Every structure is written in C-alpha cells, then in structure tokens.
Amino acid sequence: MRRTESARKSSSGSGTLTKAMRTPEASKTTQRRFVVCLHNAGYPASLELHKIYRVLPDADAEKHGDIRIVDESGEDYLHPADWFAAIEVPEPVAASLAKAS
C-alpha cells in the first residue's frame, strides 16, 4: 500500500495513509461510524471481507469517493467507499469496536 502525505491531492486514494487530517475536536463532535467490507481486491491481508471497520472522518476523501478506515494494521487508510456498506451498531458495540482499533 502507498503511504504518502500527498493523499489529499490525489483523486484516487486507495490504500493511502495520512494522519494530518484528524483533530481531537473533530472526533469528539462526530458520531462513530462503521462499515462492512464488501470488496478487498489487492488488499486481502489488510481488508477482510465481511469484517466491520471503524470509519474516520475525512471530508476531502469523501469528495473523491473514498473512505478512511482503520484496517488490520491498526493504521488508517483511504479505500474506495463503494468497497464498504455503512451499518448501524448499538452503542455498546460501537464503544467496543472503537477500543479495539
């Protein structure tokens, strides 16, 4: 996977790691979101099909059709949003998933 700091400039951010876009204030005000992986072509070691992943807020990525998730490595990466389906989970499950990642 590519790890670059220039992911914000790329229209295709698949597998791109950037940390600069997160702020503590944003995470406090944003509701936790989760998705299920439906497609993992090229990333079978870092994305497991049918697994629940935590979504990190990234408005710039969403503008380009991508989603930022915390994958198997524990790092956050951009992947095509259509590889995932959004799900709602009960708050105790959301809290547990947030701790695990």
Radius of gyration: 13 Å
The average pLDDT value, as a whole number, equals 76
Uncertain residue ranges: 1-14, 16-30
Q: Main β-sheet, in a few words?
A: 5 strands, antiparallel
Write down the CATH class.
Mainly Beta
Instruction: Please state the oligomeric state of the protein chains shown.
Output: single chain
What is the CATH superfamily label? Answer: SH3 Domains
> Can you tell me the CATH topology?
SH3 type barrels
Strand content: 15-25%
Structural class: alpha+beta
Helical coverage, percent range:
10-25%
Number of strands: 5
Strand arrangement in the largest pleated sheet: 4-3-2-1-5
Give the N-terminus to C-terminus distance in angstroms: 19 Å
What does it look like?
With 101 residues, the protein is an alpha+beta fold. It has helices at 24-29, 59-63, 91-100; strands at residues 33-37, 52-56, 66-70, 76-80, 84-87. It has one domain (7-100): SH3 Domains (SH3 type barrels, Roll), CATH 2.30.30.40. The chain is built from 3 helices and 5 strands. Strands 4-3-2-1-5 form a 5-stranded antiparallel beta sheet. Strand 3 and strand 4 (76-80) form a beta hairpin.
Task: Tell me the layout of helices and strands.
Layout: H1 24-29, E1 33-37, E2 52-56, H2 59-63, E3 66-70, E4 76-80, E5 84-87, H3 91-100
Antiparallel strand pairs: 1-2, 1-5, 2-3, 3-4
